[in-house]
Design brief:
Blueprint: H1 9-12, E1 24-37, E2 40-52, E3 56-70, E4 77-95, E5 100-119, H2 123-129, E6 135-150, E7 153-160, E8 166-168, E9 174-176, E10 180-190, E11 193-200, E12 204-206, E13 209-211, E14 213-221, E15 226-235, E16 243-255, E17 258-267, E18 273-282
Antiparallel strand pairs: 1-2, 1-18, 2-3, 3-4, 4-5, 5-6, 6-7, 7-10, 8-9, 10-11, 11-14, 12-13, 14-15, 15-16, 16-17, 17-18
């Protein structure tokens, strides 16, 4: 979040657009899952299409979060909850000084909330093979971000899901997009080497319990066309806390202003492991 200055800033920190490219276009997709045992499983996925300029951004993204947990009614009965949200956003950015900018993203959200139960041997089987019919609803929400940039790096703060929109399943179970407050900073160690960290000020409900993350990463230019990245994230909340996941990735300049990005995340069975790919065009 402390380094987002291309079109991805509409999601991570709207204020970051002010210090980015004159024009950027991004298509990003990723998925991750955690299967700690035969009784629990969780999955998160999403994709983002965004266009950004220093003063304005337009975005559409889809997020899905699913969780499988054992039911108390029978030993081999599992419950599945799922929330799929479609976000159409417009971002407006205002510079307060030469180095500080504030951005606001207004979002129209269509959410589909679902819950159901089925008999199975393993939670993983439910996550892969069981589908439930959801109830849809429309909500309006806001994301707000501020970014301060200097010669040695940047620091930012983002408040996502300001109104905490909620969606009900057919059985009137409420699934909520909780408000998240996240801070981040990046430091330029060398002209080709950067260190960044993000941390959550708030705790939110994740697929397998409470989540409050801390992440630390670094990126460096290997050649003029290749940039390498690495880092880790740690959940500092809940019974499943202190479980790290490690990521490695790279960006490659296919041609002058077109880039391909890829990353892989690994860790223990308790961590969310997955992958992500993206394509960017910058001017």
């Amino acid at each position: 979040m402390g380094v987002a200055d291309d079109a991805s800033a509409v999601y991570w920190n709207p204020g970051g657009l002010a210090r980015g490219a004159y024009f950027s276009l991004l298509l990003d997709s990723g998925t991750s899952d955690s299967i700690p045992n035969d009784r629990q499983a969780g999955k998160q996925s999403g994709w983002l299409l965004a266009l950004g300029t220093p003063a304005l951004g337009v975005s559409y993204y889809r997020l899905r979060m699913s969780a499988v947990n054992p039911s108390a009614e029978a030993p081999d009965l599992f419950s599945l909850t799922s929330l799929v949200t479609h976000h159409a956003g417009l971002t407006v950015v205002q510079s307060l000084t030469d180095g500080i900018a504030v951005g606001v993203t207004g979002k129209l959200i269509r959410g589909v909330a679902a819950e159901g139960a089925t008999f199975a041997t393993r939670a993983e089987d439910v996550l892969d093979d069981f589908d439930v019919i959801g109830r849809s609803a429309n909500r309006f929400d806001l994301d707000v971000g501020i970014m301060a940039t200097g010669s040695f790096g940047s620091v930012g703060l983002t408040v996502r899901n300001v109104t905490e929109p909620s969606f009900e399943t057919a059985d009137d179970v409420e699934l909520e997009l909780e408000r998240q407050i996240r801070g981040g900073a990046s430091v330029l160690l060398l002209p080709i080497w950067k260190l960044a960290a993000d941390f959550d000020f708030t705790t939110a409900a994740g697929p397998l319990g409470e989540v409050r993350e801390f992440a630390l990463g670094t990126e460096a230019a290997v050649t003029k066309r290749l940039t390498a990245r690495g880092g880790f994230r740690l959940n500092t909340a809940g019974d499943r806390g202190r479980t790290p996941a490690f990521s490695v990735g790279a960006s490659f300049a296919v041609m002058g202003s077109a880039y391909l990005d890829a990353q892989v995340t690994a860790g223990s069975d308790d961590a969310f492991r997955g992958w992500g790919v993206a394509g960017r065009i910058l001017f």
